[in-house]
Amino acid sequence: MTGVTRAESYFSFNSEDVQYGIEADRRSKILRTYVKNTYSYHLNEILATIVNEYTDWERPVQHPINIRDETMEALSDAQIVAPISQTANIHSADHRNSFLYVFEYQSKFGDYPQRQGCIHGEDLPYVFGAPLVGGFSHFTRNYTKAEIALSEAVMLYWTNFIRTG
């Protein structure tokens, strides 16, 4: 079993980027660096394709927050989601019991801005039952009743998976 969250590449951005967003030239620099470090040929075409695919063309003006969100989604998909999906597909070719989950819930009183969605690792408190015991040292200590129920469900899903595959 493997899984992803909505904003896997959250930590690729500094606090200023997270708070205020980024401009198109910074997006180009970030994505250009990614493309240069990942591919050998057709770099300009790949960069143009990524920008085209992850730009909301229905918005006449690109706001820095939206540019940041689009860039985060592109990096998350490229660096985390695609490799995990590929790994799950390869594994499932030989094993029927291969599973991939997407965790999208963001803690109401968590450490990260609500707009981001669930970030990398934000599923762990629910897997380990932090809401059931009022939190752990590394996880928040303020959970809602719905989050307690979510943690119970996630723990049940995981233990059932471990027990039965």
Q: Structural class per helix/strand content? A: mainly alpha
Computed CA radius of gyration, to the nearest angstrom? 18 Å
- Beta content comes to under 5%
Report the principal-axis shape.
flat
Describe this structure in words.
This protein has helices spanning 15-20, 24-38, 43-53, 64-94, 124-128, 145-164; strands at 2-5, 100-103. It is flat. By secondary structure, the chain is mostly helical. The model has no long low-confidence stretch (mean pLDDT 89). The chain has a two-stranded parallel ribbon with strand order 1-2. The relative contact order is 0.17. The chain has one domain. The N and C termini lie close together (9 Å). The longest helix is centred in the middle third of the chain and has 31 residues, at 64-94. It is built from 6 helices and 2 strands; from the N terminus they run E-H-H-H-H-E-H-H. Keywords: Glycoprotein. It holds the Pfam family COesterase. Residues 1-165 form the Carboxylesterase type B domain. It comes from Phlebotomus papatasi (Sandfly). Belongs to the type-B carboxylesterase/lipase family.
Q: How are the SSEs placed, and which strands pair?
A:
Elements: E1 2-5, H1 15-20, H2 24-38, H3 43-53, H4 64-94, E2 100-103, H5 124-128, H6 145-164
Parallel strand pairs: 1-2
List keywords for this structure.
5% strand; 6 helices; mainly alpha; 165 residues
